[in-house]
Design a protein that fits this description.
single chain; about 15% helix; about 35% strand
């Protein structure tokens, strides 16, 4: 009878072989084994279990096929690298190819099992039908089990493999004997097919099985208001206690299960004990109490409303109902019911004409005969009083999206019949958001709101905090405190999904510096050094996002001076855009400098490349002539005036005299000195950055700006826009020749300084149209120059009617 190769290892011949091997090992120790490689997955191919796949393993497989040796079950598993259930010539060829380097893995390594659902985060009750779904590319039968921290296992069933890797499903009814707690699904291959990594998979995270743990009284312990007291409520209470999240008034009330008037560690422990069935009730449930049931927040009260409440453990006594206002400090403004028997738990409230439309809460206050204590409860949130048929606001969350700069933007729509006036709502928090995927939360405040007309929508950047790639489930609530008077208070919460792709980041670099001599009558002649900062990345650098103390630092090794400019001097920098910042002004007449400039020296700004932030310039200062100097060549009648190191041709004697120049001040210069100064043919030497100009005889007024050698002008639409900019004055308007105005390129591109939205404007008299660019790439595709963009205020933006977006 043939023996297994592992049985032969016990033979005398094998022992002799080991002895011989030990004798020659010292000779062969330094000789490299060129045909041995580690198994690509879970020891497959390593039939002799020496730690490597070698030609010896191929020979063993061939000997098994020819009958020279006999393989046991485990040897067959290791040799069956093509995963067809037997050892054949294909396995021998695959092992030889792997040893030779022709292939890098075996077919068996691609076989797998994958749990799809439940994959973590779900909550199930005892007796509930749970659908289990998975893929199984293995061809053998599998066992499905459920495990509690790998300690307690419950068999569920079995399923055959599917070579097409199709999704398989089965239903599991959770039995009553399952211990409550956290679990994962485990699917693995049958033991007869070996313990291989490709043959099993767990749920990625734990799901929870609860024992139908509904609150023992009212909604106490159920912080997330899902109808059950679970470990999620315990976590929420703990996070509220530590300050990790801010609980609402209603959530804190439901968390106070030991009924001592505050949230403390005792409440957290009690909620956790109830969720795991260690206790069956809360102290609050045995305490004398009153609970408002309706209106408890969010309702719209017309002319009549039934007020409902409950009492616990109260003896005979009386109860009263009071109305509280919502504006400013809550206080009683009206008595609804006074001193009725405490056995009453409902009251038919008929609103008379002296009730004003608005937001309110009610309070039910009860006392026992012979007991001076007062037991009371107030509506958890505000409800609205709106008279029958009256037009009203109704706000909903219409949609959510992620823009190219990874801002999460919610669109709020007013589906009501009147304008929502932000100034009348008095609410601090206007939108709450919760990322159910990551657990992050946040809100935006009332001051960011503009009025929303009936049927209109407005988008708000609610967060920049969602950064992880993939799908995120968001819960967005408009008017979370129910302060806004709405016709429907029950449609303010929306659950929406967004997908985060690879984040586009800015990349800030110093592209160069410019040295300017200026004349200041107070300080004398000085030198300005201007740093040019360019965003060469794909993302938008947003002013103030990074809270940078030092945005640019600089040092001059010649003079020994150094300094920095801070975040407060920044403005947003678009991809491809360059901004200039004056970093250095000195009264010293330096001939040379050695400037080292670093943008974002502390690496606080999130950039695609933080290794290109330093710029070093070692050069002589360009000692151009002082502004206003008149020069000419000896034999050339042309006279030039020097402004900002450029020469401007004074074309006529009339212009020379009109500008107050004097012939005796003309300096004779050389060709080299004159040619070193670039010539500007625009004849705009008196027009500085930010100047306000108007062509003689024309009514249109423009603001000018310079970007490098580019000159732009932008039309001021009407007098109200002019006045909205407090630094603009009518007496500063400069009248110039029409050709001078025409020498500036007209810009019709603007960006709202607060929201960052970029528009193309079209003027029509004192009115116009604004069209929003959906993205920078759209703007660039349409051939627009980013340098031409002007920053404007809200008044300027609203002077133009909204047109169709550029997509």
């Amino acid at each position: 009878m043939k023996k297994s190769i592992y049985q032969k290892k016990g033979s005398v011949m094998f022992i002799a072989f080991l002895l011989l091997l030990s004798l020659v090992s010292g000779v062969e120790e330094s000789k490299a084994v060129v045909d041995q490689k580690v198994s690509p997955c879970d020891s497959y191919g390593d039939i002799n279990l020496d730690g490597y796949v070698t030609a010896a393993d191929s020979s063993l497989a061939a000997d098994n096929i020819t009958g020279k040796v006999f393989f046991g079950t485990y040897e067959i598993i290791l040799a069956d690298v093509n995963f067809n259930g037997r050892v054949d010539i294909g396995d021998v060829a695959a092992i030889d190819s792997f040893v030779a380097g022709s292939i890098t893995t075996f077919p068996v390594c691609s076989k797998s099992i994958k749990v799809i659902s439940p994959n973590g985060g779900q909550i199930f009750e005892i007796g509930q039908e749970v659908e289990i779904s998975f893929t199984n590319s293995l061809t053998e039968t599998t066992i499905i089990a459920i495990t509690d921290n790998l300690k307690t296992t419950y068999a569920i069933g079995s399923a055959s493999g599917n070579s097409n890797n199709a999704i398989q499903k089965m239903t599991w009814s959770i039995p009553s004997n399952v211990v409550l707690g956290n679990y994962k699904i485990l699917i693995k291959a049958l033991p007869s097919f070996g313990h291989v990594m490709a043959g099993q998979d767990y749920s990625d995270n734990y799901f929870q099985i609860i024992g139908n743990k509904k609150p023992p009284c009212a909604s106490y312990g159920d912080l997330d208001n899902d109808g059950y007291v679970t470990n999620l409520d315990e976590t929420m209470a703990a996070d509220g206690l530590s300050g990790k999240i801010i609980l609402s008034e209603s959530e804190e009330s439901r968390a106070d299960v030991n009924y001592n008037g505050r949230l403390d560690i005792g409440d957290v422990a009690a909620i956790g004990s109830f969720a795991t069935c260690n206790i069956t009730t809360f102290p609050v449930c045995a305490t004398k109490s009153v609970k408002v049931i309706s209106p408890n927040g969010g309702e719209v009260v017309d002319n009549e409303k039934e007020i409902l409440w409950s009492t616990s453990n109260l003896g005979s006594g009386v109860c009263s109902i009071y109305l509280y206002n919502a504006i400013g400090t809550e206080q009683v403004i009206k008595t609804i019911m006074l001193n009725q028997p405490s056995s009453y738990t409902r009251y038919q409230w008929n609103l008379t004409s002296d009730y004003t439309d608005g937001k309110y809460k009610i309070s039910v206050q009860c006392s026992e005969h012979g007991n001076s204590a007062v037991y009371s409860d107030k509506s958890d949130n505000y409800f609205s009083i709106i008279r029958s048929g009256k037009a009203s606001v109704d706000l909903i969350v219409e949609s959510v999206r992620i823009d190219e700069y990874h801002n999460t933007i919610a669109k709020i729509k007013n589906v009501g019949t009147v304008v929502y006036d932000a100034s009348l709502s008095y609410n601090d928090i206007f939108i709450n958001w919760k990322d159910l995927t990551s657990g992050k939360t946040g809100s935006i405040k009332n001051y960011r709101i503009v009025n929303i007309p009936a049927g209109g929508s407005e988008e708000f950047i609610i967060t920049k905090d969602i950064v992880a790639e993939g799908e995120h489930n968001l819960e967005i609530t408009v008017d979370p405190d129910n302060v806004v008077i709405e016709s429907n208070e029950n449609n303010n919460v929306s659950n929406l999904s967004v997908v985060i792709s690879s984040k586009k980041l800015p990349d800030l670099v110093i592209t160069g510096i410019e040295v300017k001599k200026v004349v200041d009558p107070h300080l004398g002649e000085g030198i300005d050094i201007i740093a040019q900062v360019k965003n060469i990345g794909e993302g938008y650098y947003i002013y103030g996002d990074s809270r940078v103390e030092k945005f640019i630092s600089w040092s001059d090794s010649i003079s020994g001076k150094s300094g920095s400019i801070g975040n407060y001097k920044l403005i947003s920098i678009l991809p491809g855009e360059t901004k200039e910042y004056s970093i250095y002004r000195t009264g010293l007449d330096l001939e040379f400098y050695n400037i080292r400039i670093i943008v974002d020296p502390e690496n606080i700004i999130e950039e695609s490349n933080n290794q290109n932030n330093t710029f070093i310039k070692n050069s002589a200062i360009n000692s151009c002539l002082i502004d206003g100097t008149l020069v000419k060549l000896p034999n050339d009648p042309k006279i030039y005036v020097i402004i900002n190191c450029k020469r401007y041709w004074v074309k006529t004697a009339k212009e020379f005299q009109r500008r107050g120049y004097k012939w005796e001040n003309i300096k004779i210069t050389t060709d080299d000195e004159l040619n070193a100064l670039p010539e500007d043919s625009g004849n705009a030497q008196d027009i500085k950055e930010g100047a306000i100009i108007r062509a003689n005889g024309d009514v249109d007024i423009y603001i000018v700006k310079y970007i490098g050698n580019k000159k732009f002008k932008r039309l001021i639409l009407n007098p109200s826009v002019f006045r909205s900019y407090g630094h603009l004055r009518w007496e500063d308007v400069i009248g110039v020749e029409k050709e001078t105005v025409n020498s500036f390129t007209t810009s019709n591109l603007v960006r709202n300084a607060r929201t960052g939205r970029i528009y193309r404007l079209t003027a029509n008299g004192d009115n116009g149209i604004r069209r929003h660019f959906r993205s920078i790439s759209v703007m660039q595709r349409l051939g627009h120059d980013l340098d031409a963009v002007y920053e404007i205020n809200e008044t300027d933006e609203r002077s133009y009617e909204q047109g169709e977006d550029f997509k």
